[in-house]
Write a structure and sequence with these properties.
The protein contains 4 helices and 8 strands. It is an alpha+beta fold and about 140 residues long.
Length: about 140
Amino acid sequence: MGTRHPNPRLAKIHRSYTVEEVASRFRVHRNTVRDWVKRGLPTNDDKRPMLILGRDLSAFLQARRAKNKRPCQPGEIYCVRCRAPKAPAGDMADYQPVTGTLGNLIAICPDCGAIMNQRTSLAKMERFRALLDITIP
């Protein structure tokens, strides 16, 4: 079975692919590739066999990957339940060390009340300390 987000680098940009070749290269079903065509993956023409340019395939898969990215700004932690980066409730977070140089920031989401976690190093903690009230045991 294929991955949820296929690697766009597997497509050679100077090559044309049939639907079956794309399906075998990315380990997805042929109907998945046909669904990509319906969702905007350009093809050469409406004739058979349907040919897909490698350049277009790579660009389409990169755009699909980038669409769901939600980068966190300094002082924000990603809330899985809200699916968005949020500043912790009360601007407070706890630091729980895992190793000597690595640990977890644990905070509460201000909107849904869920626990938010972010792995960080002590070197990067200075970025959060200026923005949040962090408790270090």
